[in-house]
Amino acid sequence: MKYLFLAAALFLCVQLSAQALPKKSKTFVRVYNNDGEKIAKGRIIEVTDNALVLKKGSTSVTIPSNEIAYLKTKRTNGHNILIGGLAGAGYSLYGITQSTANDDGWQALAFIIITPITTAIGGGIGYLTTIFKNSVHYSIQQDPIKWQGFKEVMYAPN
Predict the structure, then answer these.
(1) What is the mean pLDDT of residues 40-57?
(2) What is the pTM of this model?
(3) How far apart are alpha carbons 21 and 14 in whole angstroms?
(4) Which option is the CATH number for 22-71+136-155: 3.30.470.20, 3.60.21.10, 2.30.30.100, 3.40.640.10?
């Protein structure tokens, strides 16, 4: 049994010391053109010398680097507010379902009245989380040197 554990530990150590593959970036980005319009969003699958490949859902989108003016990481502030509001509304809806299961009509009515308040509180908390978001703005402006710098940052080891 001792030799089995020793062999397993040796096998794991050999795997850990093997040559590390390049980091695959799973960063969520929003891509904008020169007019400031969002042309795509999704998780980065690959950054080539002349294109950015994003995954949105089950499909992949390829954006040529000459169409990209700038990129922003992470989601918008509205996304945080929406998630917080949904959490607040979910709390009230849970209270409604529990109070109707107990046949307490007044308690259900109270939760119905409180639902907009808890939704607003959840949205406010979602807004406060945007302070700690640390979204990064990469200005490319169709410059190959800036594009190469972005590519290096996305594939740099942590």
Answers:
(1) 89
(2) 0.66
(3) 15
(4) 2.30.30.100
